Amino acid sequence: MSDSLNQITQKRYRYSKKAKKEHKQAYLFVAPAVFVSAVFIGLAVLFVIYLSFHKVNLFKHTYSFLGLDNYARAIKDTTTRVAFKNTLTFSAIVVPTQTFLALVLASLLNSKIKGKMIFRAIYFLPTLTSSSALTLIFMFMFSVTGPINGFLIKMGWIDVGINFLENPAFALKVIMAMNIWSTIPFYMTLYLASLQDLPDSIYESAEIDGAGPVRKFFSITLPYLKPMTTYVLITGIIGTLQMFDQAYIFSNGSGGPANSTLTVSLMVYRYAFGTQNAMGFAATLAVMLAVVILLLSILSNKLNKSDSWY
Amino acid sequence: MMKKILVLALAAIFAFSLAACAKEGKETSNETKTEETSKGEDTSKVETEEPAQDTAKTEETTGADYAGKTLNVGVWGGNDAEVAALNQVIKDFEAKTGAKIELKTYTDINTQLQADFIAGTAPDVFYVDANVFPFYATLDVMLELDPVEMNADAYYSNLLNAFTTEDGKIYAIPKDMSTLAMYVNTGILEEVGYTIEDIPTSLEEMVTFLPELQAKLDAKYGPQQVTAMTYNQDLARNLHLLERNGASITDADEMATLSSEGVLKNFNFIMELIKTNAYKTPAEIGLGWNGEVFGTGKCVIMEEGNWVYGNLVQNYPDIKFEVLDMPSYLGEKSSMTYTVGYAISAASKEQDLAKEWIKYATGDGMVTWCSGAGTLPSRDDVAKKMNVEADPVWATHLAQVEYAMPWQKGTTISIINSAYQNYFPSIVSGELTPEEGLKQVDQLANDEIANSR
Amino acid sequence: MNKRLSIGKVLLYTVLTITAGFTLYPFLWMISASLKPLKEVVGGQMSLFSENMSFDNYRYIFGRTSLFPRWFLNSLFVSVVGTTINIFVNTMAGYALSRLSFPGRNQIFYALLALMMIPGQVLLIPNYLIMHRLGMLDQYSSLIVPAMANIGNIIMMRQFYINFPKDVEEAASIDGLGRYGIFFKISMPLSKPIISTQAVFVFMGFWNEFTKPMLYIKTATKYTLTLGLQTFSSKDAGTMWHQVMAAATITVIPIIIIYLIFNKYFLVGVRMDGEK
Questions:
Q1: pLDDT over 80 (residue A111)
Q2: B80 and C64: CB-CB below 8 Å?
Q3: Which of A167, B320, B342, C274 is the most exposed place for a label (fewest CB within 10 A)?
Q4: For residue B111, how many C-alpha atoms fall within 13 Å in the half-sphere facing its CB?
Q5: Domain span at residue C225?
Q6: How large is the average pLDDT for residues A224-236?
Q7: Which domains does chain B have, with CATH numbers?
Q8: Which segments of B122-163 does DSSP mark as H helices, in order?
């Protein structure tokens, strides 16, 4: 009798006591993060979305509602198109490259080779240096009389130094190289940490079945790392699509040469802190970029279905 | 074990830092308290104003007028000499008036000051570059200044005009200036058989002189090792040439008109210089700016501002050089001048003290500042006091102010300059003709301006 | 068979070594430039050594201001406190988002993700206004509190915990450990590799952070190290590259130390063949 009573009462509540306890723990655990994010990022983001529909003069506190005007203008604007094109190209090349190379390096460094610690330490160095210091270093290295040109000339591959920084065909590519160089170590380290929990026994049994290193990589390592790859892809997409520092330092804020290093974030900065009170338009571009990032992240997530391993 | 020690050490450091900053917090809150109480009893100023008298003398303020008051001054960072000079001016001012100066050093004044204006946290007095002055003027964030009270007549008129709006209102006082002059490396010059008198005085003559010089340089040092002359792809340097003969790079609406006939003509002349292949940018040589190229002996002639003088003397002492007037163009001499002024925040609560600061820093204090920091004074009487003419380099720079154009052109100039820098390399490389290139510049700039309006 | 293995290995080592060379060169160049006078840095030479190397640049930086040790301590304080708080906040949130089921879980995850997507440049002024209203300007709290949680790292922890073995936790709960006990006594300690990684990178983020201190901190004695070092350069007279490189080197050293400290935790596995 009491049993069936219990069953009835359990069916009435949507969650069991045990589940509710879990809910409580969960809310407690996410509370600080959610609170801080809501106050310090959420509010600002809402304000930005609000601004994107207005013509604003923040100094005089005037806001005039424009509806979708800013958006219409942004879509029609040729410079905006160029900026998006640059930004998407940048991301399309950098993200797959850095993800793949990080995977490969991590699995190489995880295998039985000598000098693992030293290699890991060396590969970690680029991430330790601040991005502005790195940009300056790279600008020096790629300058007309810098080491890279020096090397190319010595090898006889070119006669005169190439002005990488002022050549529209090269400028963005230099930034790509620099970005890949400096973020691979970060992702590689994450993959390495993840790989620690993959028991050697799985590899050993695969070897017994006759699998070579390449097969092991694609059938064991890669799938195991899928959840971490989701993280690497999403943060890679977000990071590359929001690239600002390097473009700014390289082109002295102009986005040149010939708009080749103009990224959307650089455009946002120019409008936000320019001399024409264009914060509304800057907000519009920012929201548009966020939407693009969102779509690409969803896409990459679908392509990398990963939320469970077992 | 190691970890435990580390943790203990770190904990000790926190405790120490926490204690230190708690003390800091207490001190600053004490200061603001005294500031508020003394505000209530604002004693009237004891200045004896005699505007008709010798304008280099500042008004008599006794040493305790502003005791207990704090003035926030916003400046940007500088090298050793500049910081030392500014600190000396501050010390002298504090002794004279009894007030206290709190410096806010901006790293990126453009971003930070805008944030300050919006939030209302701007300092009482701050640096304004003539270049951004028109923009700030549209924001109503600066206090209007009375020309009589601030001895406006004492300053060089073209500088003061840079800080005057179209309706004749003055919002800032120039604190110093720099001009462009022509630097010549006499050491290299003599090595290839020229004397300083051989340097042409007009740009038109340069078109023929530079290739000749370059040929001799190539013969002596190897091809492309030393360049005859450097230039910059920057409106801040080219503007005085581009606007010759009544041409203007903007129209009445402040939109870009670089592809207009007059400007195009002047720009084509600059292209002639570039085509000699003896006229290059520092980036093409692989360095950051003219000073580095000149200092490492990789060019013979450069047009630079007086800020490079101290740098050369200190960092590149083995370069022998002389400074000449800027070469003329189309029969007229011209140069650029860069000036920074002090403006008072419209929301400042210490307006009188702020005015005292400006009057001092651009009066007696200017001698200390300019001689220490290595800039030129913005008023003639101080120039005489400093005996600027004694050093030929300074004398030349000073002489340029007569025909120098202040670097300023409405509120859209930074957008236009950015577009200009964006496409210049493509014009030089031949990808775009000058006309196409300048049209692109106009379009890029005007799109940006239109989107912002 | 043996021959094939060794050729493969030789190739492997060659590739790794060349890559290491490329990785190391810019870094070494930075250090060598910090030891040279301006003339030589600017000259654009490839070589890492020269006759005129000295510690002059470092002497200049240390001597330029008496605030240097203060700035260092400020950065250390902010970074250590910020990192410690972050570790707990991020790990707890990531764990909850992947391991616990509760209503609103997916919505919170996607909302946090979406917040990351707005480019930071437009958020500068709104954040400045928020700080101003909260009275946090010119306080260390402005550098720590808003950065208490790092959404990127929350996601990283979430992804990590997806793969995390459940059996260890289940065993612990059978042994009578409550929910919180399981997390703090079992899960977190066993996540040492990922948490160490997180610690190093979060520390680095705080240490290298430049824009926030620039906007929020006004008093020179409260500057962080990266900010303080920036105030040296003069607006017109060109960048003092040799000093910039020296400043960059100084900034990197503490991070290297942190890395060396946490290094040994990076690679400890969860499964240790029967050990628990």
A1: no
A2: yes
A3: C274
A4: 19
A5: 66-266
A6: 86
A7: 64-177+338-406 (3.40.190.10), 180-337+413-452 (3.40.190.10)
A8: 133-138, 157-162
B407-418 tens-digit pLDDT? 999 999 999 999
Residue in C closest to B309 by C-alpha: C237
pTM: 0.84
End-to-end CA distance of chain C: 39
Chain A residue closest to B427 (CA)? Answer: A258
Backbone angles phi, psi at B226, to 5 degrees: -125, 135
Which whole-number Å values give the CA distances from B379 to A206, B50, B173, in the listed order?
85, 18, 11
Which one of A34, A41, A130 has the shortest CB-CB distance to C108? A34
Q: Per the CB < 8 Å rule, is B451 touching A74?
A: yes
Q: How far is B189 from chain C (nearest CA, A)?
A: 21
Q: How far apart are CA A195 and CA B359, in angstroms?
A: 68
For residue C245, is it within any domain? yes
DSSP state of C235: S
What's the pLDDT score for residue B48?
36
Total CB pairs under 8 A between chain B and C: 98
Cβ-defined contact of B418 to A59 (cutoff 8 Å): no
User: Would you say B161 and B337 are in contact if contact means Cβ atoms under 8 Å apart?
Assistant: no
Distance from CA of B89 to the nearest CA of A (A): 32
Q: Tens digits of per-residue pLDDT, B231-245?
A: 999 999 999 999 998
Report the range of poorest mean pLDDT among B26-40, B362-376, B433-447, C176-190.
B26-40
Domains of chain A (ranges plus CATH)?
A: 2-51 (no CATH), 69-303 (1.10.3720.10)
Structural domain total, chain C: 2
Mean pLDDT of chain A: 84
Interface list for chain C against chain B, based on CB atoms closer than 8 Å: 37-39, 42-44, 64, 73-74, 76-77, 80-81, 124-125, 128-129, 132, 137, 140, 214-215, 218-222, 227, 230-241, 261
Of C81, C215, C233, the CB nearest to B77: C233
3-class DSSP assignment, residue A290:
helix
Burial class (CB in 10 A: 0-12, 13-18, 19+), A84: buried
Q: Do C113 and A234 touch (CB under 8 A)?
A: yes
Residue type, A68: L
